[in-house]
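go over this:
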Amino acid sequence: MRVLMLSTDRNIFKKLSPVAERMKDYGSICDELHILVIQKSKVESRKLENIGKNSGVKISQNVFAYPVTSRFKLGALFKAYRLGTRIFTMDFGLRTLDYLVTAQDPFETGFAGWIIARAFKAKLQLQIHTDFLSPYFVRGLLLNKIRVFIAGFLLPRADSIRVVSDRIKYSLQTTNYRLKTVPSVLPIFVDAPKIMSAKPQFDLHKKYPRFDFIILTVARLEPEKNISLSLQVMKTVIKEYPRIGFVIVGDGKEMKNLKLKTIDYGLQTSVVFEGWQNELASYYKTSDLYLSTSDYEGYGLSLVEAALSGCPIVTTDVGIASYILKNGLGALVCPPGDDICIGKGIRTFLSNLELRKKVSRTAIAEALKSVPKDKQTYLLEYKKLWEACL
C-alpha cells in the first residue's frame, strides 16, 4: 500500500520533532508514504538538502516529505496538484489498486487531494481534526464559511472519513450530507503511561511562591482558544482570591493582544506567560486547576493530558469534554462563552479540595478508557482505516 498525504504542518521537516516521528510511525504501516506539506509562504524548508524536482526530504527509509510553497494559498494548491501527479506517475507507476490519497482536512488540502485522487482514480480519505460544524467556527470569519462550503462538497465524495472525536461524528450525522461511508472515530494518539509516569522537573509553586493556588492553560494563542474569556473570568475571581496565579503556556498571534488585556485588567502580577514549552508534565502536575475556554475543539489534547496528569479541569463544552469527561464527573463543563459558569466552576474547586480529588480520579479513569492501550494498537487501527478505504 502506497499513500500520498497532504498536510500543512511544517514541523514535519524538523528532525526528531513529534510530528516527524509520527510520520515515521505511519510509514511503518505502509509500503511508501509521500507527504506534500502545503505552505502559504516561503519557509526554511526550501533550504533543506536533498530537495530536487523528483525527490523529497527523506524522513525515514520509506517516508518522503515535499515542501509546496507559494505566496498565495491557491498557488500552493496548484503546485501540490502538479507535484502529486509527478509522484504518482514517476514513483507509483500509475497502479490504481494499492494507493490512496489522504488529506489532513476537508478544506483546502482536501480539495487538492480530491483533484489528485480523481485524476488517477485513487481512493480518497478525508480527516477532520476540528469541529467545523460548530457555530463558533464560522462566526465573523468569511474564510471559514467558505471552508464549510468546501467540506460540504468534498465529504460526500470521500471514500473514507476519519474524525478525531465522537462530537465531530455526531455533528456530521446531523447534516444532510449524503456520505459514502460512516465516519470512523480515531482520536489523536496519546501515550497515557508516559504522561502518568512523567516526573515533574520543577514545581510551579516553588517557581512562583506568591501564588497559593495556580490555574493553568496550555494552548495555541489563537482566537478560537478564547483566552480573552479566561482573563475576563480571572479578573473577577482574583478580586476575591488575590493569591491566585494564572499560568499560560503557549504562543500564537494573540500573544500581544492578551498581554495588553492583562495590563488593562490590572493582572500583571497574577498572570504569567510562559511561552511554548516542550516539557509539560511539570505544568500539569504542579498546578491546582486546568482551565480551557475554547470556543470549539475537534478533540482537545490538552484536556486529555491534564486529566491523565491528575489536574482537575474546568472547561467549555468542546471536543471530548461532555463525551468523555462529562460535567460533574470528570470535569466541570460550561457552555462556550459562559463566563459566569466558568467563574462558578473555579470557585467551586477553590473551596473544595475533596471534590478536586474525586473529579481528578474520575477523569483519569475515563481518559484511560478513551485512549489506545499502546502505540502499536493505535497504528493497527490507523492501518485498518487505510485498508478499508482501499
Q: What stands out?
A: The longest strand covers residues 32-39. The two ends are 9 Å apart (CA to CA).
